[in-house]
Amino acid sequence: MSFASHCNNIKNRAKPNDVFITPLELAKKHIEMIDYEEDDLWLDPCKNSGSYYNQFPTDKKDFCEILDDKDFFQYEGKPQIICDNPPYSMLDKWHDKVISLNPRVYSSLIGVYSLTPARIQKFQEAGYGVKKMRLLRVKEWFMMTCIVVFEKEAQSVVEADLTLYSTAPPPQLCKGFNKKGKPCQNKTKCGEFCHLHRPKP
User: Fold this and answer.
1) Backbone conformation region of residue 63, classed left if phi is above 0, alpha if psi is from -120 to 50, else beta
2) What is the pTM of this model?
């Protein structure tokens, strides 16, 4: 199966599989990438087994977990740090909620194919820069994963370029002239003249 086909199957599967338990050692390394202050309130918005929550370096912490009837989308606390391995089927909605809570730091474990320029730009427009990033692999997970640390007013190490580039050669413009005597602007792949101005045999 090709990469594109595999991605399409994930995107369109009838029942999203959003439960990916983060290995304890990986969660620990993730947490260690975050620069924090002593009084910071940490939030794990999808606690599950507690890979993150149980290893936060403070007792000043909170969590959400839909299985415990604590829905992140209903959360109204004021955390300074949000650290997570989010549900991939609702990333855009998830990120909107994160931004609405206005933490100083948001750090996420995310598939490299999901960390799109548009998502980076969304955080940049909300005042966040990408402060740190680390690529890694988890044997059982699809493709590579990365840890990304967004921080308010940080000098971003990543630029989001939304230009649509193409490997196709640029279209040629016909070098003939239209009825008003101006150069013809018909795009053509047949050389110097479009079908309107090509010399007749």
Assistant:
1) beta
2) 0.74
Query: Does 182 lie in the same domain as 113?
Result: no
Tens digits of residue pLDDT in 143-186:
788 999 999 988 888 887 788 888 887 778 888 888 888 888 88
Same domain, 144 and 184: no
| 137-167 CB burial, b ≥16 within 10 A, e <16 | eeeeeeeebebbbbbbebeeeeebeeeeeee
How far, in whole angstroms, is CA 172 from its chain's centroid?
A: 36
Q: Extract the tokens encoding 83.
A: 């650290």
Between the alpha carbon of residue 99 and those of residues 66, 92, 153, the distances in Å are 20, 11, 14
User: d(Cα 175, Cα 88) in Å, to the nearest integer?
Assistant: 51
Tokens of 13: 């599967």
Q: Is residue 9 part of a domain?
A: no
What is the C-alpha to C-alpha distance for residues 40 and 81, in angstroms, rounded to an integer?
A: 7
The answer to whether residues 134 and 185 belong to one domain is: no
The count of structural domains within the chain is 2
Sheet strands side by side (includes 42-44)? 61-63, 42-44, 81-84, 105-111, 145-152, 128-136
Contacts of 36 (CB under 8 A, 6+ apart): 42, 57, 58, 80, 81, 105
Residue 170: inside a domain: yes
